[in-house]
């Protein structure tokens, strides 16, 4: 960001080699996803992320996905990674419902993950996962938060270094049921 009176700029330094996607949450915070599988929460007032979730979308081996009854060790609320291409765990899409605490991230590990963002860049917590087969190449959350739209494909949008043969290229729409703050009163 440029600071015109001082004729200087603030350069944001990502901890990963490559940031794959980003979106604004509001006018002071934004979210980014990296090729190392990290999800970063940023403040426009700081050069570095205020909160990082490493391995936010671990790739699961197909045998792990098929054995639903098996108790698997968990990390960040989901199963620990197995041996698959690292391209499957790259965070390739992020979205946020503007002015709210709801965000979403997607990769090719079989889920779109919804997150709650804590106030004042304090962190993020996973809410739940929406199953989705394929590379999540784009995400959007409706203005009222009633649904989430994902652009999904067999391959990543920027190359052919990974493939999910069972996926279909297209658009997926998931209906969301969010609790309204006024219902709590």
What is the radius of gyration? 17 Å
Q: Main β-sheet, in a few words?
A: 4 strands, antiparallel
SS field, number of helical segments: 1
Structural class of the secondary elements?
mainly beta
Side by side, the strands of the main sheet go 3-4-5-6
Q: What is the CATH-assigned architecture? A: 7 Propeller
Order of helices and strands: EEEEEEHEEEEEEEEE
- Return the average pLDDT rounded to an integer: 79
pLDDT < 50 runs, ≥5 residues? 61-83
In the CATH scheme, the class would be: Mainly Beta
Measured as a percent range, the helix fraction is under 10%
Task: Tell me the distance between the termini.
Answer: 40 Å
CATH homologous superfamily classification: YVTN repeat-like/Quinoprotein amine dehydrogenase
Strand content: 35-45%
Total count of strands: 15
Total domain count: 1
The CATH topology annotation reads as Methylamine Dehydrogenase, Chain H
User: Can you tell me the overall shape?
Assistant: globular
